[in-house]
Amino acid sequence: MKLHYQLNAAFTTLLLIIMAVTGYVIYSLLLNLLVQNEQQQLEQKGEILVSVMNEQYQSLGDVDKISAFLQEQDLQLFLYNRQNNSVLYSTMPEEVVKGFYKNNYFSNAESNLWEYHSDKYVISRILVLPRGANLELILLTPMKDLQAVQHKFIERLLIVFIIGAAVAVLLSYFLTNKLVTPLTRLKYQLKKIEKRKFDEIEPIQATGEIREVAKSVYDMANELSRYISSQQSFFQNASHELKTPLMTIQGYAEGIKENVFEEAEKETGLEVMVTEVKRLKKIINEMILLAKLDSEQAAYDPEQIDASELVQQVADRMLPFASENNVKLKVDIAEGMTIYADGEKMLRALLNLVVNGIRHAASVVEISFVTRGRQKLLIVEDDGDGIPPDLMDNIFHRFVKGKQGDTGLGLAIVRAIVEQSGGKITVENAETGGARFIILFEGNG
Ligand SMILES: Nc1ncnc2c1ncn2[C@@H]1O[C@H](COP(=O)(O)OP(=O)(O)OP(=O)(O)O)[C@@H](O)[C@H]1O
Ligand SMILES: [Mg+2]
Fold first, then answer.
1. 395 lines ligand 1 (CB under 6 A)
2. Which CATH class is domain 301-442?
3. What's the whole-number mean pLDDT along residues 362-389?
4. Where are the domains of the chain?
5. Class of domain 208-295
6. Is the pLDDT confidence value at 131 over 60?
7. Average pLDDT over residues 273-294
8. Measuring from atom 8 of ligand 1, which residue has the nearest CA?
9. Do 365 and 379 contact (CB within 8 A), yes or no?
C-alpha cells in the first residue's frame, strides 16, 4: 500500500477510535447529568408549589381544593399522606399508582428512581402543609423524556463528529499529500540515478528531513557520476598507455622477424623493445599496487614511525639519482618526531614525491617536517618550474601527467597511501616557483 494511503488510514482509524471513545463517555455521563438536573428542577418546582399551597390552604380539610389547584398545574404528581400511607391525589393512571404501591416506593423515602413495568421515573418529594400532617408532594418525570433529550443530543453530537471527521480527513489528505509528494519526486530522481541519467536529475522542493535526504541523494549521485567517469577515463587511459608500448614492440618484433632492418637498426629495435617492456612492467606493477591500495585495507600495517629515520632512508636511496641529475637533497627535520603510518608504504610515497622533485628541480629538493599544534606536515619542495596550471586540479588522478611525464601513476599512488594512513595531500607552487607537496596528518600518532 502506498505511504500516502497508509498515513491516511492510520490517521482516520485513530480519529474514529478517539471519537468513539469520546462519544461513549459523553453518552454514558449525559443521562446521569440529565437525571440530576431533572431532580433539581422538580425540587424547585415542588418548592414553588408548596409555598403557594402553604399560603392558600391551611388545613387537611382543604385537600379537595388542593387537588383542584394541583390539577391546574399540568404536572405528573402525587399528593401523599405519610401517616396512613395513602395517595390523596394523583395525575397518574390508577394501575401505575398500584404498581408503585406494590414496590413500596411511597413508604421508602430513599428511592428517587421509580419503576413501573419497563418505564422509569425520576421523582422528587417535598413536605406540604400543615406541618406535622406528613403530607407530601411527589413530582415525577418519565425517564423516557430524559432519554429522548439524550438521544437528540447524541444525534447532534454525531452530526458534529461526522462533519469534524470529514474536515479532519480532508485536511490529513492534503497534509500527507504535501508530505509524500516530495518523497515521490525523490523516488523519480532515484530512478534516474539508477539508470545513470545524471544530467537529468532535478532538485526537488522539500523541507526538514526529506530535504536532508534529498541533499544526500544528490551528493551520492554526484559522487557516483564522478566515480563512473573517473573509472571510464581510467580504462581509456590505461588501455592507451598499454597500447603505445605494445605497438612499438610489435613493430620492431615483426621487422626483426621479417629481416627488414639493418644490423644497427635491429640493435636499436631490441634496445627499444627492452625499454618498452620495462615500461610496461612498471605500469602494470603500479596499476596492481594502486588496485591493492584501493581495495585491501588489511594490506596496511600502521605503526609509530620515526619521521627523521624515514626521511633519512628516502635521502639515502635518492642520493645517486639526485647527483646524477645535479640536484642537491636538503633534509630539515628534528629528531624524535613520529607519525602513525605504514612505514614501508610511506617510504614509497615519499620516494615518488622526491623522484618527481629531482626530475623537475633546477638545483635543490628539500624535505622538511613541521608541527603546528596537533598538525604534522611533511613537505617536499623543489625549485623547478612548478606544476603546470592545467594539471593543478587533477594532478593526483591516475594517468595524469605532464609533457615529460612517465606513467602518470606516481602521485595517484602517493595519494592512496596518504589517505589510507588518515592523512591528506595537497600541492601548491612555492614562492620560488617550484612545486610544494604537503602531507598533513591531523593529531596522528
Ligand atoms: N615536482 C614537480 N614539479 C613539476 N611537475 C611535477 C612535479 N611532480 C609531478 N609533476 C607533474 O605531475 C605529473 C604526474 O606526476 P606523477 O608522479 O603522477 O607521474 P609521472 O611522474 O609522470 O610518472 P611516474 O611517477 O608514475 O613515473 C608529472 O608528469 C609532471 O608533469
Ligand atoms: Mg612521478
1. yes
2. alpha beta
3. 94
4. 3-151, 208-295, 301-442
5. mainly alpha
6. no
7. 91
8. 356
9. no
